Amino acid sequence: MSNNHQRMLSGERYNPLDKNLVAARQKAHKLCRAISYNTQLSEAEQEMLWSELLPNKAKQSFIEPPFFCDYGDNITLGKRTSINANCTFLDCAEITIGRGTLIGPNVQLYPASHPLAAKESAPLEETDERI
Predict the structure, then answer these.
(1) What is the helix (H) or strand (E) element at residue 121, kind and residue range?
(2) CB 3.0-4.6 Å disulfide test: which of 15, 20, 59, 74 passes with 2?
(3) What is the pTM of this model?
(4) Which of 38, 44, 74 minimizes the C-alpha distance to 59?
(5) 3-state percent breakdown (helix, strand, coil) of the chain, nearest 5
(6) For 44-99, what is each residue's pLDDT tens digit?
(7) What are the φ and ψ backbone dihedral angles of 15, each rounded to 5 degrees?
(8) Among residues 40, 114, 119, 125, which one is catalytic?
């Protein structure tokens, strides 16, 4: 786990262009596309992709594609959780959905924020701070 990954999960300022974070997002986005838009996948192939994208997903939970997330491994889904189509979870902070939860279509979860003061939210390359 990179230092930026730890900072991200703890809600501190981090560099989203960190090579490890970029690679993790690219992997998750590729898996989301494979699950969401490949109608030729068998049930076993789909489950294998879901397990890779969401290692903390209870086997008894269900997600109706398309589904989108940034990392996947920061999402925990309890047993009998059902997520309807076209949901987006931006998991740069941990997301935990308890067992038996039903989430409707088009729900978007954005658990993290960024600094709201202009000076603090300036792009990293415009600041003297090195993250």
Answers:
(1) helix 118-121
(2) 20
(3) 0.84
(4) 44
(5) 35, 15, 50
(6) 999 999 999 999 999 899 999 999 999 999 999 999 999 999 999 999 999 999 99
(7) -95, 105
(8) 114
- Residues 6 or more apart whose Cβ sits within 8 Å of residue 69: 28, 32, 53, 54, 75, 88, 89, 90, 91
Pairing of strands 102-103, 95-97: unpaired
Two tokens, residue 17:
């262009």
pLDDT at 128 over 70: no
Contact yes or no for 114/121 (Cβ under 8 A): yes
- Annotated active-site residue 5? The verdict is no
Residue listed under structure tokens 């192939």: 45
Which residues does residue 95 pair with via DSSP β-bridges, in sequence order? 75
Three-state SS at 28: helix
Give the model's pLDDT for residue 39. 83
Give DSSP secondary structure letters for 92-116.
SS-EEE-TT-EE-TT-EE-------
Q: What's at 7, amino acid-wise?
A: R
End-to-end CA distance of the chain: 15
Q: Is the distance from CB of 75 to CB of 56 less than 8 angstroms?
A: yes
